[in-house]
Design brief:
Largest sheet: 2 strands, antiparallel
Distance between the termini: 56 Å
Strand order of the largest sheet: 1-2
Radius of gyration: 23 Å
Strand content: under 5%
Shape: globular
Number of domains: 1
């Protein structure tokens, strides 16, 4: 005997099976997202293919594959959109629009690639690194990949060769213009020692990464012995780069973590720290004729390095103020200081996209680390907050590109997800 509702009832198991399959696919993508986002730590950027003029690294391919599912996941009713999400989308549009307006379609195409690496990584991390299991998987992989990178760096110093770079150059030779990243043989030696580069594009980038990894793993370690072990390992790895930026990053991380531990019972400790930092900057501004010169000269291992960076700031700033709203796009100026050696992410961003995009990038960082009213930040939240702040400060003397640019977007995305998780009323003890 048949009845009108029979077809509907008969179809229910099929619908449930389809829904279960869809949820399974989502879970599989979520489990793959973390290793795909982090594999750039151990895979050199020279491992890439050219398609229609576009350089596709494994990390960039992963972002392209995961971006649309990530956006779809963020738009689900169960998720909460944050201010940082809107700022990230605005940042991508502003980058492409400014570069295209300033220098045409080819410049806009380069801006799309940079926006994909940074903003795309942000949205993938926001979508898939939310639940405690995903965050813990992220931290475990950070530890594993950091240990691998430090082992490779040690081999660089002991052998006097950039092992991974030389292997990749032999296996995948590229034209000089394609691989030129401003790293000369002279830049690879300091005090008679080979500066470690590991799997990164420059010793400075590798050194700063060690300080960022230290911020994340120190605040997630569950015992004093583990914290001490990781602190020593990351400090040792960072020193192999012989970079002042690595030293500055490690000082910021170690002092911030120690400060947090010592004053953990006082909820006002971070307000006090920010007030103290602001007071220090005001004092430097009042007591010195050139605050920027003072900061740059005291943030480097060698005074001449600081003065060289100050010369770069003067030269690039003059160019930036010729078109402060949109920048100059991706063009060559015929001047070595502008084309090859701009050692500041803030200068490079302003040069390519204009001052408003630089301000937007800073505001995006700060919006992701905003405290949730009525909630105390967890240790893991503190770790990612410190990582974002290290990016901001080291950016004064370091330009981030390739995977480190992507990793910055990942860190901001994870920190924003932790903020969303806390806003949802989840218990702090789950992390």
């Amino acid at each position: 005997m048949s009845y009108p509702g029979g077809a509907l009832l008969a179809g229910q198991p099929r619908i449930r099976g389809t829904a279960a399959g869809f949820q399974s696919t989502i879970r599989q993508r979520a489990s793959l997202a973390v290793p795909l986002l982090l594999m750039g730590i151990v895979l050199p950027s020279s491992l890439q293919v050219l398609i229609a003029g576009a350089k596709l690294t494994p990390t960039r391919i992963s972002i392209v594959v995961l971006l649309l599912p990530a956006v779809a996941r963020l738009l689900q009713p169960s998720r909460r959109l944050l201010l940082s999400d809107g700022l990230a989308g605005t940042l991508a549009l502003a980058m492409v629009g400014a570069a295209g307006y300033a220098a045409g379609p080819q410049s806009a195409f380069s801006a799309v690639a940079e926006a994909l690496d940074f903003v795309g990584a942000y949205f993938v991390a926001r979508a898939f690194v939310l639940q405690p299991s995903a965050v813990q998987r992220f931290i475990r992989l950070i530890k594993t990949f950091t240990a691998i990178a430090i082992c490779v760096a040690l081999a660089d110093v002991l052998t006097g060769h950039w092992i991974i770079r030389e292997i990749m150059a032999a296996l995948m030779p590229q034209p000089e213009a394609f691989v030129d990243d401003g790293t000369s043989s002279a830049d690879g030696v300091r005090a008679g020692l080979r500066r470690a580069i590991s799997t990164f594009d420059h010793p400075i980038l590798y050194g700063v990464f060690c300080s960022l990894a230290a911020a994340i793993v120190l605040c997630s370690a569950t015992s004093a012995i583990k914290r001490l072990s990781w602190a020593c390992l990351c400090f040792f790895g960072g020193m192999l780069s012989l970079s002042s930026a690595a030293v500055m990053g490690m000082v910021l991380v170690m002092s911030s973590c120690a400060y947090d531990r010592l004053l953990c019972r006082f909820p006002w400790r971070w307000h006090l720290l920010w007030t103290g930092a602001g007071t220090f900057l005001v004092a430097i501004t009042i007591m010195t004729n050139n605050p920027l010169s003072w900061l740059l000269s005291h943030a480097t291992l060698e005074p001449q390095t600081g003065f060289y960076r100050l010369m770069i700031w003067d030269a690039v700033s003059a160019q930036v103020w010729q078109s402060p709203l949109t920048g100059a796009g991706f063009v060559t100026f015929g001047y070595y200081l502008l084309d090859r050696t701009v050692d500041s992410v803030w200068l490079v961003t302003s040069l390519h996209y204009g001052v408003p995009v630089t301000i937007l990038l800073i505001v995006l960082n700060l919006s992701a680390v905003l405290p949730v009213p009525g909630c105390r930040p967890t240790k893991i939240q503190t770790g990612f907050t410190i990582a974002c702040i290290v990016f901001l400060f080291t950016g004064l003397t370091v330009h981030f590109w390739n995977y480190m640019w992507t990793f910055w977007g990942v860190c901001i995305g994870v920190r924003a997800s932790l903020r969303e998780w806390q806003m949802s009323g989840a218990q702090d003890g789950q992390f």
